[in-house]
Design goal:
The complex is a heterotrimer. By secondary structure, chain A is mainly α. Chain A is built from one helix and no strands. The N and C termini of chain A lie far apart (64 Å). By secondary structure, chain B is mainly α. Classes of the chains: A mainly alpha, B mainly alpha, C mainly alpha.
Chain lengths: 61, 226, 234
């Protein structure tokens, strides 16, 4: 490595790191959306079951 | 018609100010304290700070501008005058124009005290013979401060943490004005007489003012849209 | 309700741009490190230049997009333009931070100090970062309609401040110091220029891909919120 190569590596490492971090943030958001969709669909499943066999004792949460 | 509305609004601001004197007195005191703090902040008891004249002057004026611009809509908001003005048939551009004129006048009043004071406090070399050039640059800078200040204080007016938002929005936009103002001052103070440099900075200030006037005219309707 | 949900508009575009950006970024990285010739003057340090300048230009493009989105928002009052504006300012801000950091590293490598006030590019981007960081402060302290309106106005005013910062710093430079490095791209041999062009294309594609991805995410979040609201009311 000629003089200053470590700075070039550092610069590109920072670029890659921050861009990747940004993509991870976007990914985390889509994961959160997915989780909420799952929760909603589970809630709908439960509601449908309840409609099929109504059970007044069960409280709605 | 518009001109009558404009003069009426400006006169209202000035009359209020002359009666209470709260804004200009506070601005001047603040500027003097700033100058003293800057001197102490250097950590030297050096008498001749000619080299830093531009910086001392324009840092002080920039922070004073933030203070003054932050006060500019306070009376309207506190006494609910703004609600009345906004439903009245006064065009929004007249409203902003009146505010800009008021800020311009306040800043000029502060500079009438601050610019000579900087000379007395910090400059041991020649200063007074070039004070006219400094004044021209200062008037141009006031125009910039008035135009961008009206826009940003209008934006900050109805936000939460308004007093915090305004400096955060306004100071980065003031950086070019500080650079140009300090540069123009530096060009003519302490025996320097670099008129081409001074002219360059003044042209820049004029360009800044024109650009912000255009942005304000293009967006003023949306600032007060509720 | 249909069983197979309609594709969210923009999903396909996000995919295509994402793939394109990935290919271009990989190609640019290979080109910059393995193919491009060593600079006779600056040596290996010059290899920072390719991405540094490409990211700088792309961040300006992002701010221009946000300014246009701001104008369109004020014209149409369509939430979509607010999304575009915020997303592109976020990417532009990220990129300007990268410009400042890599520029600082470059300064350290070639002049031995982390910060050089006489380098106009570094100073300008510092101001730009401050201007656009304030955008998010403004956004966080207003709601709904007002938030979008103020953001749009600030995006326009901010974009007006960008050339002003550029020139104010350069007016000062031209008098006080000789400019240390400007447009080193202008006099580059073709074997370097080609990799700069590839890097630039890669960063632009990356910007578009991230923007589309962000917009798709926002849209699905909004759809989800609507759905949740309807279920609660049902």
């Amino acid at each position: 490595m000629s003089g200053g190569a470590q700075y070039v590596v550092a610069a590109y490492a920072v670029i890659w790191f921050l861009l990747l971090a940004y993509v991870v943030v976007l990914g985390a958001r889509s994961a959160r959306v997915g989780r909420q969709v799952e929760a909603i669909s589970r809630m709908l499943d439960r509601r449908e079951q309840k409609d099929a066999e109504p059970d007044p004792a069960e409280d709605r949460t | 018609m518009r001109r009558r509305q404009l003069t009426a609004l400006v006169r209202k601001d000035l009359r209020l100010e002359l009666r209470t004197r709260e804004t200009i007195v506070a601005m001047v005191l603040f500027a003097i304290v700033m100058l003293a703090i800057l001197q102490f902040g250097f950590g030297t008891r050096d008498d001749d700070l000619t080299r830093f004249t531009g910086g001392l002057m324009w840092v002080t004026l920039a922070f004073t501008a933030v203070l003054g611009v932050g006060r500019s809509y306070v009376a309207e908001r506190e006494q609910r005058v703004l609600d009345g003005l906004l439903v009245s048939p006064v065009p929004r551009v007249v409203l902003l124009g009146a505010k800009a004129i008021a800020i311009f006048l306040y800043m000029t009043a502060v500079e009438i005290i601050v610019i000579p004071l900087v000379g007395i406090f910090f400059v041991k070399g020649p200063y007074w013979d070039s004070i006219g050039w400094i004044a021209i640059a200062a008037l141009l800078a006031n125009l910039c401060i008035a135009l961008s200040g009206t826009l940003f204080s209008g934006l900050a007016l109805f936000t939460r943490a308004r007093d915090l938002i305004l400096p955060v929005l306004f100071l980065p936009a003031l950086v070019p004005v500080v650079i140009a103002g300090a540069g123009a001052t530096h060009a003519v103070v302490g025996g320097a007489h670099d008129m081409s440099e001074w002219r360059g900075y003044c042209l820049f200030l004029a360009a800044y003012a024109i650009l912000f006037a255009l942005v304000s005219i293009a967006t003023y309707d949306a600032v007060f849209d509720d | 309700m249909t069983d197979s949900p309609a594709r969210i508009p923009g999903e396909r575009a996000a995919m295509i741009w994402g793939v394109l950006a990935t290919i271009l970024v990989v190609a640019a990285t290979i080109g910059v490190f393995l193919v491009a010739p060593e600079d006779a003057d600056q040596g290996v340090i010059q290899r920072i230049f390719y991405f540094h300048v490409a990211i700088a230009i792309t961040s300006l493009v992002a701010f221009a997009v946000s300014c246009v989105a701001g104008i369109l928002y004020l014209r149409t009052r369509n939430d979509r333009w607010d999304d575009v504006g915020e997303a592109s300012i976020r990417i532009g801000l990220l990129m300007s931070v990268l410009v400042v950091i890599t520029g600082s590293i470059w300064a350290k490598a070639s002049w031995g100090t982390w910060w050089v006030w006489s380098d106009p590019r570094l100073v300008t981007y510092l101001i730009v970062v401050l201007i656009y960081a304030a955008y998010f402060v403004l956004r966080s302290s207003a709601e709904d309609d007002r938030k979008m309106r103020y953001s749009a106005i600030y995006a326009i005013a901010g974009f007006a401040s960008v050339p002003l910062s550029f020139y104010s710093v350069r007016v000062a430079e031209s008098f006080v110091h000789p400019v240390v490095f400007t447009g080193s791209g202008a006099n580059m041999p073709d074997s370097m220029l080609i990799w700069f062009v590839v890097s630039q294309a890669a960063m632009l594609a990356l910007f578009i891909a991230l923007l589309e991805l962000d917009l798709v995410g926002r849209r699905s979040e909004r759809a989800l919120r609507r759905l949740a609201l309807r279920l609660e009311n049902a």
